[in-house]
Design a protein that fits this description.
Elements (H helix, E strand, L loop, with lengths): L3 H7 L3 H18 L7 E7 L7 H20 L4 E7 L15 H5 L19 H15 L5 E4 H7 L3 H9 L1 H8 L5 H6 L3 E3 L14 E3 L4 E5 L5 E5 L5 E3 L1 H12 L3 E5 L6 H10 L6 E5 L2 E2 L16 H5 L4 H9 L6 E2 L5 H15 L4 H6 L1 H5 L13 H11 L4 H11 L9 H18 L10 H15 L7 H14 L6 H11 L8 H8 L1 H12 L6
Parallel strand pairs: 1-2, 1-9, 2-3, 9-10, 11-12
Antiparallel strand pairs: 4-8, 5-6, 6-7
């Protein structure tokens, strides 16, 4: 019999594939006598704006790889969430107050820019606090690191001095990627002006690797020589990536496809500092409802807060887990499918063996310990139930659920109780406004009448599969070809939608007698008004 570790080594789920790549790197380091006491996973964050859905996805996905690695190795792991808060404020965000006040602080490190909200030491401190509260709200295990603190504390000093010694090598990596004009002024080091405190994008007049200093002209034209250590300079963002990897000993970092052209530069700079670059995982970007890339500045797409208004975090986690290397539309219409897919995976998990569980997304989403609560009805079913019953409260829906699944109740099924509330809200905001009922054709009318009569004979049957078979037989009897046209007619006539969950499951939940009446109301045109 295979051991748990053997099963994990053979698992095909993408977090295990990435974890095995990390393990290979760790084994190489140990073979070369470069073993560290822990394996370091990292995610990056730019505090010029508030955390968003991409931040959630990056930390969640990295956490899944970290959890998979724990199944492959007993070596301790850490996860650092790094804030690039020493970056200069290049523009003023549109969604913050006191914009005029901020104007005089342009190009200063974000930790030196006053907080426009007036609640924290700086703008970066405000956004960093929001980031930590955001991540803590999801229960992520991580260590927060501030670029400003690492630069000023001396934690980066050794790597910065190595970078200064490798100045020519770094320039040889960067210059071919730049336009002619930028090449004339480019420097991988950005000094902090000792007079204005701004991050300066100026060429270096001299570098002295032995002394650890750079010489440049300050904003007023005065020539300044100062150290690159102690927070007196920072690196341009591309060299900063490689320097940070080398300084911290990062073993794994993922980022979006927009970094793909620059990833080789980060890696080469890390190598120029004498350190093997980390394993990288490149994920695809998210698209809005029009298929355009989601942008923080545009505000298109859907936020984490908006998603969570209509569904639990687990469904968003599933969205992030599925096919990370494929571009996906991140919009409200993705929510119902992700909720119902999550319920399906959770149900399957209870009967799977250990190897199958490693392939199940809920194992990763719940760190190997998914909840055992049963969800007897789907999100799509609940929304159709809201439609058919005109339910506006959870109590009404629970009346149907109890009749269908007598053992279910809000106290013992709190997740289902929340799902009921989400379904009502989602239906009211997104489904109801788009409903388009139509009258049945003569062929459909005859089939619907037959179905209503058949349902009348069933009494209190709650077997959705048995009801579904009857629906199938009536569709065949009336020669619907393809048969899906029959089900399409059911949903367009009775619900004003082109599709929905299994009709037999709906009838079992709503009640066969009530469903027969629903059909006759549709035949009488009551929904057309």
């Amino acid at each position: 019999m295979s051991s748990r570790r053997d099963l994990a080594m053979a698992a095909k789920a993408w977090p295990f594939e990435e974890a095995r790549r990390v393990l290979e790197r760790v084994n190489r380091d140990e073979a070369a006598g470069k073993a560290k006491p822990y394996v370091l996973f990292e995610t990056g964050y730019g505090p010029s704006g508030l955390p968003h859905v991409g931040t959630f996805g990056e930390v969640a996905r990295t956490s899944w790889v970290r959890r998979a690695f724990a199944e492959l190795s007993d070596k301790p792991t850490r996860l650092i969430t790094f804030s690039d808060d020493m970056d200069g404020m290049r523009k003023i965000p549109d969604n913050v107050p006191n914009q005029e006040m901020l104007r005089e602080h342009l190009q200063k490190p974000l930790t030196s820019v006053p907080d426009p909200f007036g609640t924290h030491e700086s703008f970066a401190h405000h956004n960093n606090a929001r980031l930590r509260a955001f991540l803590d709200g999801f229960g992520f295990e991580y260590e927060f690191r501030s670029a400003t603190e690492l630069y000023k504390s001396g934690a980066f000093d050794a790597a910065l001095l190595r970078a200064l010694a490798a100045y020519d090598a770094i320039m040889a990596i960067m210059l071919p990627t730049l336009g002619e004009e930028r090449r004339r002024t480019y420097s991988p080091f950005l000094p902090i002006s000792p007079k204005s405190g701004r991050v300066l994008y100026v060429p270096m007049k001299r570098i002295d690797a032995a002394a650890g200093t750079i010489t440049f002209d300050d904003e007023d034209g005065e020539e300044i020589t100062q150290s690159v250590t102690g927070g007196r300079a920072k690196m341009q963002w591309k060299p900063d990536f490689g320097m940070r990897w080398a300084a911290l000993g990062v073993d794994f970092e993922m980022f979006g496809k927009d970094h793909l052209p620059n990833q080789p530069l980060y890696a080469r700079i890390c190598q120029a500092l004498g350190v093997e670059p980390p394993v990288n995982f490149i994920y695809e970007l998210f698209l809005d409802e029009l298929g355009q890339k989601i942008s923080k500045t545009k505000g298109n797409g859907i936020s984490v807060e908006q998603w969570l208004a209509y569904s639990a975090p687990e469904s968003l986690s599933l969205f992030m887990y599925q096919k990370p290397k494929s571009a996906k539309r991140l919009y409200f219409d993705a929510i119902p499918k992700e909720v119902d897919d999550y319920v399906t995976y959770l149900d399957k998990y209870q009967t799977q063996n250990e190897a199958e569980r490693f392939e199940n997304p809920v194992w990763h989403i719940h760190a190997g310990n998914p909840p055992q609560e049963a969800w007897p009805v789907s999100f799509a079913l609940l929304m159709n139930l809201v439609s058919a019953s005109n339910a506006s409260s959870s109590e009404i829906l629970w009346g149907f659920i109890r009749a269908y699944a007598p053992s279910a109740n809000p106290k013992d099924n709190p997740a289902l109780d929340r799902l009921v509330g989400y379904a009502i809200r989602y239906y009211d905001d997104f489904v109801k406004p788009k409903k388009k009922y139509r009258a049945p054709t003569d062929k459909e009318r005859a089939a619907l009448a037959d179905l209503a009569t058949a349902l009348d004979t069933l009494g209190n049957v709650t077997d959705g599969a048995a009801i579904q078979n009857i629906v199938y037989e009536i569709g065949k009897k009336h020669a619907f070809e393809p048969l899906r046209d029959w089900f399409k007619a059911l949903y367009e006539v009775l619900f004003g939608q082109e599709q929905g969950p299994r009709f037999g499951s709906f009838a079992a939940l709503y009640g066969v007698t009530a469903t027969a009446k629903l059909i006759r109301d549709g035949l009488e045109g009551k929904f057309l008004a």
